Amino acid sequence: MDRALPPSQTDSLREAALEVLRKNDLGDWTKPAPRLYPHQWSWDSALIAMGLVHTDPGRAMRELETLFAAQWSDGRVPHIVFNPRTGDYFPGADWWASTRTSSLAPVEPATSGLIQPPVHALALSRIFDGARAQHLHALESRIHDVFPRFLAWHRYLVECRDAAGSGLLTIYHPWESGTDNSPRWDSCLARLEVGQMPAYQRHDLKHVEDPAERPTHREYDRYLWLVHLLKQASYSDEVIQRDFPFQIRDVLMSAIFAAANHCLAHIGEAIGRPSSELEELRTWSDRFRRGVEGAWDDELQLALDWDAGIEQPVRVQTCAGLSPLIVPDLSSDVRDAVMASLSGPRFAGAAGLAYAVVPSTAPDSPGFHARSYWRGPTWPVANWLLWWGMLRHGSEQQAEAIRVANLELLQQPQAQFAEYFDPFTAEPLGSRDQSWTASIALDWLAFRER
Ligand code: 2M8
């Protein structure tokens, strides 16, 4: 039984979460949301697999296999895999023109040319451990088969997104971070001069009640201008890195990558991969741990992204600053400092919160907006990542407090597995029936039974 909620409520929450995943299930992959996001998104799929593993580990594996089947020949896993049969989305496959633009892209399916945070090995590791425990040999053999693709993905990130060996991954677009309109990107986007590009029409605003919940038109112009420039560079890392105006070393992505290398090494060792590969993965995990630890800012008591365009840290206060918690083998003094920031008055301990969960941006800090997407609302999925990390660092009590507070938020009758929530009123915002919200609810509900 779950300590957070009485059994009748956990049962109905679980059933409702499963229903969301069933409704968004397209057979081999899952839509992140019924209408707002009708294609396959990279990190959504991995986090969806984290929930599916509790009911159908084979289907969880299929989610990853479908995504990795769209991998580019340089190893990158695209942030969107387009399905011609599912709904409107802008910018769609034509706008990205991946196959026409780069010989590295698959001929089919059409994809975007960006990446997203590399959470995939966290999901693979969960599937693997389950398969081993339950003697699911066919599933283990599928993990064997897909392993080289995962390794190629990690190698792409190391060689192309951190060629300088900084221990932090460089992103070229806010969409790569997954935290699209976070104040993390404001100062860099403010320097960007948008040139001539074709007129466009957004689809996202059709699917939310209030446009304030989504990025502004000014932000969208910048997002699309960056895509235009990326296409001009043929999505080539070498060309992009010469003078691209948006190059930021992303601390959250790098923390996830440190953990992902650790998870992949764990699987690799268990399935007997060559020791040279295991050594590489461990070295990468350590390199990105050091990168994230080195991004710690004593004054803000948060880890900060690095804006390579001006060679300065990005001094904002967002949940990404807590990402050292996701890193394996974190030194205990950094862990204690991050935990203090997380539970303190800028995040889960902020005055007036409806539930003691982590908002995406610290209330009262510049750029905060309670209803706008990644500028302040609480995202259960971001809370899940921090919770996952806290458990690994032995911060069990605090992890439990985050899990319980999130489940209480999600079991409100109006919550409907929303994409994000106003942290003060708990009003659901963005899409409803968001797959990864349902999926991580399943994982949180199953936690006490594990
Ligand atoms: C959001 O991003 C997409 C663009 O990739 C959008 O706003 O159209 C983000 O929350 C991102 O992290 C997420 O993967 C995606 C699908 O849920 O939606």
Description of the molecule:
By secondary structure, this protein is mainly alpha-helical. The chain is built from 17 helices and ten strands. Strands 3-4-7-8 form a four-stranded antiparallel sheet. It has a two-stranded antiparallel sheet with strand order 1-2. Strands 5-6 form a two-stranded antiparallel sheet. β7 (306-307) and β8 (312-313) form a beta hairpin. α3 runs antiparallel to α6 (120-133). The longest helix has 25 residues, at 137-161. The N and C termini lie close together (11 Å). It binds (2R)-3-hydroxy-2-(alpha-D-mannopyranosyloxy)propanoic acid. (2R)-3-hydroxy-2-(alpha-D-mannopyranosyloxy)propanoic acid (2M8) binds at residues 32, 37, 41, 43-44, 79, 175, 178, 180, 204. Residues 32, 37, 41, 43-44, 79, 175, 178, 180, 204 line the site of (2R)-3-hydroxy-2-(alpha-D-mannopyranosyloxy)propanoic acid (2M8).
Task: Give a topology summary.
Layout: H1 7-24, E1 40-41, H2 42-52, H3 57-68, E2 80-81, H4 93-96, H5 98-101, H6 120-133, H7 137-161, E3 169-171, H8 174-177, H9 186-190, H10 217-232, H11 237-243, E4 248-250, H12 251-270, H13 275-294, E5 296-297, E6 302-303, E7 306-307, E8 312-313, H14 332-343, H15 380-392, H16 396-410, E9 420-421, E10 428-429, H17 435-446
Antiparallel strand pairs: 1-2, 3-4, 4-7, 5-6, 7-8, 9-10
Helix pairs in contact: 1-17, 2-3, 2-6, 2-17, 3-6, 3-7, 6-7, 6-12, 7-12, 12-13, 15-16
This protein binds (2R)-3-hydroxy-2-(alpha-D-mannopyranosyloxy)propanoic acid.
Residues 32, 37, 41, 43-44, 79, 175, 178, 180, 204 line the site of (2R)-3-hydroxy-2-(alpha-D-mannopyranosyloxy)propanoic acid.
